[in-house]
Each structure stands twice: as C-alpha cells, then as structure tokens.
Amino acid sequence: MRTHHLLAAALSALPALGVPSLSPAQEFEGTVRTRSISISVEAFWERMESLDPHAILNVPIQDILRMRDVEVEEVIHYVKGSKFRTQPVGGNAPYGVADLDRGIFLNVQPDEQVYVEWTLADMQDGMGPMTGPMPKGSENYDAPKEDATIRPLGKTRTINGARTTGYEVRSGEDITWAWVTNEFTAATRAFRRMIEDMDKLMPGDDDDDDAMALYAQHGLPMLVQELTVYDGQADGSYEIEEIILVQQESVSDSMFEAPAGYRKMTLQDMMRRMMQ
Fold first, then answer.
1. Minimal CA–CA distance to 92: which of 74, 78, 110, 105?
2. Across residues 126-135, what is the average pLDDT?
3. Angle CA(143)–CA(144)–CA(150) in degrees, nearest 5?
4. Cβ atoms 35, 229 nearer than 8 A
5. Highest mean predicted confidence (pLDDT) among 90-104, 132-146, 178-192
6. Within 10 A of 96 (CB to CB), how many other CB atoms are there?
7. Cα dihedral sign, 243-219-54-144
8. Are 83 and 256 in contact (CB under 8 A)?
9. pLDDT tens-digit profile of 61-81?
10. How far apart are CA 193 and CA 27, in angstroms?
C-alpha cells in the first residue's frame, strides 16, 4: 500500500479521531502517526490446521504482534497544508518530503547527509528505471491479475471512535479487508479528493490502487488488511496498515526543506548508485 494513501485516510479521519472539524478555509497542521505490520503467511502454520484466509484475517492484531518474525514499522507524517513529510520512527532512516502545490519532492538520507530533489517535470519527462515498464522475467515484474471485485463482509467494528463497515476486495490471490466509515461525509469527500490529487501528481498502476479504488467508494478506510496466499500453501504475505494517533500542533516550515549542509544529488546520481 502506498504511504500517501494511508496518510490521506488519516487526514480525512480527523473528525473521527476526536480532532476538531476543520472548515473548508482551514488546513490541517500537525502530525499523523501510522503503524504497518507485516508477517509471512508461513508463520500462521503454528496456530492453524489450514491456511484459511478468513481465519488469518480474523486473528487479533495484538496476537499477531506476539508472533515470531513479525515486522512492525511506525511512521510519523508531518503535515502543513499541502506539504508532507513522511519519516519512520527511530534511527536515521531515509524520509520523503512532498510539496504538492509546488510539485517538488525530496528523498533525504540522513546517514549519508545527502538528498535528491525532483519535480513533476522530471516525472513527466521520464526517469528511466523509475518509471519505465519492467520487462518480463525481471525480479520486480508483476503479471497481470484478474479484475478486482468487492463485497460487503456483513460486519461492523468501532475503530478510533468511528463505526466502520467491513468490505472485502479480491484480485487474483490478493484479499483485502477494508474497514470504512460513512459517518463523516465531509471527511470522506476530503479523502477521495486527496487520493485523486495524489494520483494525478504521481500516477501509477498497482494492485493496491485497484483495491483502494473499490473500497474508497464506500467510505473512509480506518484500517486496511492485505493478505496474499498462494494456492493454500505456506507462501505469501499479510500486511496491516492502521492509524494510531492524530495530533494538531504547529509544524515548522523547516521540516519540509532539505537539511542545511546536506549535499544535493541528481536523480541520475541516485539511479546509478541504486544500480551498483
């Protein structure tokens, strides 16, 4: 799942999370904290007789966090109007900055004190391996999948104070459970608008987008569970994305700028280093 999708959902969920509603003239300023959980499907063999997808999807998150080999990452999204900074919690991991109004994007690498800056023009002109189609047989090639379909789960849950309804999206071997709310009409409109704006700026074609396009029609996603199981075998992945904290606070403009003293790299320099 793309990070900007979850961030968009978090921003739109402000009323549901107890943050005062914003008038159309106001823009959100503050931080949104999200958590991503990833685990191999093989890990569920220890607690299940068969790898039934619905049984896996019904395992409580707290139980999954106690399982072996689970990977957890928390991210803080700093937001100020149309400016965003997405940074993993802890350490000196690379982070990204986007200024949607200006169409400028940064990738900052604190360990090496370097950063890369690119614009919409760079993206439209093409960035070689970053935007070109992956050839068949390459490591990252994804074969075309079946058209995604959606159905209601017939279940409801309360997540972060919002009453949500569950939907299941299927696309090939992928199953996505999305818990969406319809209690906040304005928030849902904002979510859809931000998704549309981001996809215009950063168009793509992946399965997460296909699934999101379906469940976003039904409301605002507060929790998304994505599962892939290949033919019932102990092979596949399970990822959970959730919003855990939203806080309105002042954010300095400097958070959305390249750090002083860092060396600027060109996009070509970065691509050459990635290919080495």
1. 110
2. 40
3. 130
4. no
5. 90-104
6. 16
7. negative
8. yes
9. 999 999 988 999 999 988 887
10. 14
DSSP assignments along 126-192, one per residue: --GGGTSPPPTTSTT-----PPPEEEEEEEEEEETTEEEEEEEEEETTEEEEEEEE-S-HHHHHHHH
> What single string gives the DSSP state of each residue in 24-35?
TT---EEEEEEE
Tell me if the pTM is above 0.90.
Answer: no
Percent of the chain with pLDDT over 90: 30
**What is the tens place of the pLDDT at every residue in 189-214?**
545 555 565 565 555 545 566 787 78
Higher pLDDT, 74 or 123: 74
For 41, the token pair is 């499907």
Q: What is the pLDDT of residue 71?
A: 95
Residue 192 has which token pair? 């859809």
Contacts of 238 (CB under 8 A, 6+ apart): 38, 39, 40, 41, 44, 56, 64, 225, 226, 227, 228
Q: How distant is the alpha carbon of residue 197 from its chain centre? A: 15
The pLDDT assigned to 123 comes to: 61
**Containing H/E element for 80?**
strand 71-80
**What does the buried/exposed string (b/e) look like for 227-243 if buried means 16 or more CB atoms within 10 Å of the residue's CB?**
bbbeeeeeebebbbbbb
Tokens 């391996």, located at residue: 129
Whether residue 1 contacts residue 9, with contact meaning beta carbons closer than 8 Å, is answered with: no
Token readout for 83 is 């400016």
- Residue pair 77/34 in contact (Cβ under 8 Å)? The answer is yes
